[in-house]
Design goal:
Blueprint (H helix, E strand, L loop, with lengths): L1 E3 L6 H12 L4 H17 L6 E7 L2 E10 L6 E9 L8 H15 L4 E7 L5 H9 L3 E11 L2 E9 L6
Parallel strand pairs: 4-5
Antiparallel strand pairs: 1-2, 2-3, 3-4, 5-7, 6-7
Helix pairs in contact: 1-2
Organism: Thermoanaerobaculum aquaticum
Pfam families: Acetyltransf_1 (PF00583)
Protein name: N-acetyltransferase domain-containing protein
Length: about 160
């Protein structure tokens, strides 16, 4: 498996198919994810969004998207991490997350925030973040919809020097 920090035009379709294959993302969520892809492809390095793509034999296995939080000194948002169901359980998600965290730290971003749904469907996602050293920082009931709250996770990568 190879991890690359470059987002290629061909990745757009692969990411759209990957998002659909997971069965987790509704059409609105997938559209938002693809808007971030489109922005990065059109703006290149000037885009706020950074992408890491996991691939093997020319096939996209998964991807992650992150960005520094504007107005903060050390914080970053992990916007998306998704792995093709056929590649899940083989360390792709952990490899993406570890590489993203290293990239964030290189950029001086030591506080990583992740938001996800509190719906039962997302229990494995929440368990993944907890297993990777994140802590539940906040929960906002009914944020997305009635019965669908937002869970906000935080991980401190290192203590920044003042």
């Amino acid at each position: 498996m190879r991890l690359r920090r470059e987002l290629l035009p061909a990745d757009r379709e692969a990411i759209a198919l990957l998002l659909a294959a997971t069965g987790f993302f509704n059409p609105e969520e997938s559209a938002v994810a693809l808007e971030l892809v489109d922005e990065r492809l059109s703006q290149g390095p000037e885009s706020h969004y950074r992408f890491l793509v996991a691939e093997e034999a020319g096939q996209v296995l998964g991807y992650a998207c992150w960005g520094p939080i504007p107005g903060t000194r050390f914080s970053a948002d992990l916007y998306w991490i998704a792995v093709n169901p056929n590649a899940q359980g083989h360390g792709v998600g952990r490899a993406l997350l570890a590489a993203i965290e290293a990239w964030m730290a290189e950029q001086g971003r030591f506080r990583v925030y992740v938001e996800t749904s509190t719906r039962p469907q997302y229990a494995p996602t929440r368990a993944f973040y907890l297993a990777c050293g994140y802590q539940l920082a906040a929960e906002l009931p009914d944020f997305y919809a009635p019965g669908d709250g937002k869970a906000i996770f935080l991980k401190l990568l290192t203590a920044p020097n003042p």
